[in-house]
Each structure stands twice: as structure tokens, then as C-alpha cells.
Amino acid sequence: MLSQSDSDHSLAALLPLVICPKCRGDLVLQGAGLRCLNCLHAYEIVDGIPLLAETGSSELWGIVSEGQNSTAYQEHFLNRGVGEGYRHKYERRWSKRRATKREIGRIETLLASQPRSSRLLDIPCGGGRVSGPLVNATDLLLQADLSLSQVREARQKMGSQKNIAWLTASAFLIPLRDGSLDGILCNRLTHHLPSAAEQERLIAELLRVSRRFVILSYYDHGSFKSLGRRLRGKQPGHTTKREDLRARAQRHGAFVKIDVPLWFGGSRLRYALLQKIHCSSASTMLT
């Protein structure tokens, strides 16, 4: 459990940054929770963690969705047992521990390409599995996830460090002010989004909140592994074409500055650093 002083410090760090996920109005402390000054919606604070997550898909941002969406995945992952199973799998299996180490290495490399940050966001934080490099690269780290149990796990893993704050949030409706952060890590979410509308919304929200950069993982549609799965009649997962990623970044004021595979050239999982255009005069993609 977090001490009361640490919980108060976390809330104090969040309050200037958070907004209502429904209408983007200002939030104020009222009683034991938060209330929006615009739409008057109230939000609980549980164990020092503001509950600002909105579940759902494109109906949340006013678009009629046709075909698949990630709502079922979200509801599935809100089950505490699913999150715990995911954590245990990555802790117990040698191959998963090796993958985690490699992911952390990639994230460290991409963070090293940027000046030190004042504020970073880890969403979804997923129990803090790859959060270590972030806390050392910023003055304030925000850890957020749709699942309260995942946020609690992340807090337990990271400990009561003074430069971390926690909240629940959807990456489709991030309850933070425009440009309130220097950078964001969004690890292992894109390949769970089956529709182009959701992938576009994710990138738009991440780049709205970040004023400098976004580190984003995705499954490469053109990778050897994805191609091999398709040739064998298997689903390659919800992949993204590299040219589509570049186009989406450009539509929302950024360019793909770095794009590297997790393991080697044909690796399905890749890590891209999206740089806000106003932060750099460079416009070439490094591979």
C-alpha cells in the first residue's frame, strides 16, 4: 500500500494535467473524488488513483463503427485474472523474460535519442513490465492503464518513488491536456486494435497529448513472420503497414524519425519513434 503522503503527492502532480475524458473540461477535487466543472460528471479516486478510464470504441469519439473493434478485448483485459496471467507468463517463461529485456533495450535506445523529459506517460502501463527506463528519463512519470488492477501492479512494482503518478485511462480518450507531456510510450497496444479507425484514433490522441515524441510498438504487415503466417493460412494479428504508420503520423503533425525491429530485419514487432514536426527540422526516417 502507498502511504497517504505518497498518495497525496501523486494526486497533486496529476491535478494540473488531468481533464474530463468525456468533455475535456477542467477537473477539481470534490469530496473524495474529482468533478468536471463543465459537464459535472464525477470520478472516483480509489486508493489514491483517479478512475478516468472510458471503455468502448469509436462511439466514444462520435464515429459509427462497422466491423471489428477492440471493445471485447478491453472488457476481457479488465478481468483481474487476465492481467495477472499476463504478468505471470512474462515472469515465468524464459522466452518472455528475454523478450522483455529486448523490449526494454529498444525503449532505452529510443529514449536516448531525445533530450531528458519533464513528463512522460506510459499507457498502457501493463503492470509496469517495461517502465524502468522511463522513470530514469523524466522528472515525472505517469503510469496509466484501462485496468485498475494493472495500475496497482505497476505501482507495486515501481515502489513509492516520488516522481511517479498513477491513473486509469483509455488511450482513445486520454484525460490529459493538449501538449501536457514531453513524450509517451505506448507498448503492445496497436496490434490489439482490429480497425483502421481505432489505430488512427490512438495515434491522434497520443500526439495530441505529447508535445515532442511518441514511442509506439506495432506488428509490421510486411515482416517475414507476418508473410509466413499468411502463407500458412494463419492470422498474422492486427498488423500495420509501415507506409500507413507514416501517413497517420503526418496527418497528426509528426513524422517517423526512427523505426526499428525488436530482433532483426524480419521481426514482426517493431518500435517507432514519432517526432512532432515542430520539434525538429529533420524529416527523414531512420531504419
Kindly describe this structure:
The structure is a single chain. The protein is of the alpha/beta class. The protein has a single domain, classed as 3-Layer(aba) Sandwich (Rossmann fold), CATH 3.40.50. About 35% of the residues lie in helices and about 25% in strands. The protein is built from nine helices and eleven strands. It has a seven-stranded mixed beta sheet, with helices on both faces. Strands 1-2-3-4 form a four-stranded antiparallel beta sheet, with helices on one face. A hairpin with a 2-residue loop joins β1 and β2. α3 crosses α4. The longest helix has 19 residues. The protein is globular and about 60 Å long. The termini are far apart.
What are its keywords?
287 residues; alpha/beta; Rossmann fold; four-stranded antiparallel sheet; 9 helices; 34% helix; globular; disordered C terminus
List strands and helices in order, with pairings:
Elements: H1 4-14, E1 27-30, E2 33-36, E3 42-46, E4 49-50, H2 71-77, H3 80-92, H4 94-112, E5 117-122, H5 132-135, E6 138-145, H6 148-158, E7 164-168, E8 181-186, H7 196-209, E9 210-219, H8 224-231, H9 242-251, E10 254-261, E11 269-276
Parallel strand pairs: 5-6, 5-8, 6-7, 8-9
Antiparallel strand pairs: 1-2, 2-3, 3-4, 9-11, 10-11
Helix pairs in contact: 3-4
In short:
By secondary structure, this protein is of the alpha/beta class.
Terminal CA distance reads: 43 Å
Computed over alpha carbons, the radius of gyration is 18 Å
Indicate the percent of residues in helices.
Answer: 25-40%
Number of strands: 11
CATH domain topology: Rossmann fold
Shape: globular
Order of helices and strands: HEEEEHHHEHEHEEHEHHEE
Counting H and I runs of at least 4 residues, what is the number of helices?
Answer: 9
Mean of pLDDT: 89
CATH architecture: 3-Layer(aba) Sandwich
Tally of domains: 1
Weakly predicted, low-confidence segments: 281-287
The CATH class turns out to be Alpha Beta
